[in-house]
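Here is the promised in-class demo. Please do not try to memorize the tokens; focus on the logic of going from shape to residues.
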């Protein structure tokens, strides 16, 4: 590595909530980095187990570790507090129940260059049964937005981790709005953050290293249903960010297969929430369907291959024909029957 790069301070942010079982493996891996000019920000988000105590013990043993103790407020709030106090010129993230190889930071630092503000690496996904698979990208090097979404399909893997970001977009308004994770969103908040970053710096450098080890565990946010308002905000924010990025590149990124599939998935989460949480009246549900822009409804209908045949049938019969009252009845009964059987 060049001497200049050896002097680059990289912050590593780890949000932690009741992660006592996994925390040691995660932090030990970060302390074993071959690139040593780092600060590790352990954010204890109101843990009720020994996570906070373990964090303090690490801080006592290694001066590179800094600990923030917060009342529980969620992963985005925890990350944002760390962004407020970090000192690094670059920042990357890790989750407390994951691990990294010793070269996680070094490979990012080796890839740093002028004109590149975000570096993206590959990752290894480990299933609960021990199977592993690699998240690989079709193209490496510095790519524009069009290829980030069309070739490497960022919409399908917009995680905060396995990426390293130049921090000037998070520390000064001189480079645009001060970026933060959206605390009001509880699902796909990582993807929204990455999209906001790319809207300010619309290119990324991909490196062919799989240094992040992501453990797929039951109980993740993908299996939870949040309130209608939380799910709706995520759906709407995704659409808003895609419109911004599409304007920047002069093409409709939403119509790319991976982007459209994410849109359809986010819509399905809102749809399910309306019937499972039972917060809205029938009129309010119908109004939600009516207010979706026609082009968005069309994309949802065209890219719902991952949905079961009854869902696709409902879209074809009622969404395309704008029969929203019938659509509401259809999904009201279909989801009620499905969850009754599941129970």
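The designed amino acids, position by position:
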């Amino acid at each position: 590595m060049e001497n200049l790069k050896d002097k680059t301070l990289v912050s590593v942010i780890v949000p932690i909530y009741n992660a006592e079982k996994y925390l040691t493996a995660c932090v030990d891996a970060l302390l074993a980095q071959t690139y040593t000019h780092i600060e590790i920000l352990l954010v204890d988000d109101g843990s009720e187990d020994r996570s906070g105590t373990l964090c303090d013990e690490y801080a006592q043993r290694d001066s590179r570790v800094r600990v923030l103790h917060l009342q529980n407020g969620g992963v985005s709030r925890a990350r944002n507090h760390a962004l407020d106090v970090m000192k690094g010129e670059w920042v990357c993230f890790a989750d407390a129940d994951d691990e990294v190889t010793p070269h996680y930071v070094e490979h990012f630092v080796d890839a740093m260059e002028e004109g590149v503000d975000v570096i993206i690496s590959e990752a290894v996904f480990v299933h609960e049964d021990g199977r592993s698979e690699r998240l690989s990208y079709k193209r490496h090097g510095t790519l524009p937005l069009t290829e980030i979404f069309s070739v490497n399909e960022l919409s399908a893997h917009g995680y905060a981790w396995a990426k390293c970001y130049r921090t000037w977009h998070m520390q000064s308004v001189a480079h645009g709005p001060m970026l933060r994770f959206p605390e009001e969103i509880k699902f796909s908040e990582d993807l929204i953050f990455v999209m906001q970053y790319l809207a300010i710096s619309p290119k990324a450098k991909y490196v062919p290293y799989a240094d992040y080890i992501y453990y797929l565990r039951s109980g993740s946010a993908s299996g939870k249903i949040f309130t209608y308002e939380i799910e709706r905000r995520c759906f709407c924010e995704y659409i808003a960010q895609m419109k911004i990025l599409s304007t920047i590149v002069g093409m409709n990124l939403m119509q790319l297969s991976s982007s459209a599939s994410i849109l359809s998935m986010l819509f399905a989460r809102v749809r399910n929430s309306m019937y499972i949480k039972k917060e809205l009246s029938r009129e309010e549900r119908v109004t939600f369907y009516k207010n979706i822009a026609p082009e968005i409804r069309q994309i949802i209908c065209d890219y719902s291959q991952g949905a079961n045949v009854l869902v696709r049938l409902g879209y074809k019969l009622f969404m395309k024909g704008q029969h929203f009252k019938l659509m509401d009845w259809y999904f009201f009964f279909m989801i009620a029957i499905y969850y009754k059987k599941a129970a």
